[in-house]
Design brief:
10 helices; 11% strand; mainly alpha; single chain
Length: 310
């Protein structure tokens, strides 16, 4: 992909510099003579992943005619749901095997395993490494395991990332708001998006051993997004507080018997850089509850969309 012009920014490092300086990318000019059209979606996804403060992202193409890229709502919803579903299934399977390993000593059947990747190709899994880890899991069932840890972080990151990216599509964004009760809907959505961005930002850049938070994990979100969103609405600076009660009749995703609530509270003043752990801000249980809510919301929207026959 050759980007000929993105305002005055012409390289990935320049894009990052623009982000750090809080500048806005206005337009991107792509030469179809040298660009590879099938890679355009990947390019768009890459730009979104960098999480720019974008005022207007407009693609123009050189050549016989100009084409405007505009994904359909149904495509955005389908892609988000399929991505979230993969990670939701991984969450269940990963946790199942991890917890099963605490009850059954699989170390006794550990073996060297060759993963065949093609003719004459293979990657070997070492029996001693597997055996040592399985013995440790079985002998210390009270301790969290590496598999639990990575299953949690990667599945939650995948699910919230799918929703975060889809929210850049205006029609999807408006549709997503309908999963919240009508009363105070805009405020609820704002706090949901704040929690979504916080979790996604931390898990995209900070999968470390103890998950200690540093300023780079949340400073931009707090000062350049959350504070500005509140100011635009004439609201004083405050914590992010997102709650969802499935058992409330006012909730569009109404599950009477599901009395456990999604409750995320991010109090900025309580986050001590270099000291506070991510799990002190959003504990393991609420990570799981929030990821499940995101998946449930996408499923709800998918079902509504199919019912309409759009």
């Amino acid at each position: 992909m050759h980007v000929l012009e993105a305002k005055e920014y012409k390289s990935a490092s320049a894009f990052r510099e623009a982000k750090q300086r809080n500048l806005r990318i206005i337009s991107i000019l792509v030469d179809l003579e040298v660009a590879n059209p099938p890679r355009l979606p990947a390019m768009i996804a890459h730009l979104k992943a960098l999480d720019f403060s974008v005022l207007s992202l407009k693609f123009e193409f050189m050549g016989a005619k100009k084409v405007k890229i505009e994904e359909k709502m149904e495509d955005v919803l389908r892609d988000a749901w399929e991505t979230a579903q993969l990670h939701y299934l991984f969450l269940h399977l990963g946790y199942f095997y991890s917890l099963l390993s605490k009850k059954i000593n699989f170390a006794r059947i550990a073996a060297n395993i060759n993963i065949e990747t093609g003719p004459g190709q293979g990657f070997r899994l070492d029996r001693e490494i597997i055996q040592t880890m399985l013995e440790d899991i079985y002998n210390k069932p009270q301790d969290p395991t590496l598999m639990e840890y990575l299953t949690l972080l990667n599945s939650v990151r995948g699910i919230v990332g799918a929703v975060r990216e889809a929210l850049d599509h205006e029609q999807f964004r408006e549709a997503f708001k309908t999963v919240f009760p009508e009363v105070d809907r805009e405020r609820t959505f704002l706090h949901f998006e704040g929690a979504l961005r916080f979790i996604r930002n931390v898990l995209s850049h900070n999968i470390r051993d103890k998950m200690i938070l540093y300023e780079e994990d949340f400073e931009d979100l707090r000062d350049r997004w959350w504070r500005k969103e509140l100011e635009k609405r004439g609201i004083e600076f405050q914590p992010i507080e997102f709650h969802y009660d499935y058992s409330s009749p006012s909730s569009p995703i109404y599950i009477p018997e599901y009395t456990t609530k999604v409750e995320i509270r991010i109090v900025w003043d309580k986050i001590m850089p270099g000291e506070t752990s991510y799990f002190e801000v959003v504990d393991v249980f609420q990570n799981l509850m929030f990821a499940e809510f995101c998946y449930n919301a996408l499923t709800y929207l998918k079902q509504k969309h199919e019912e309409k026959g759009d």
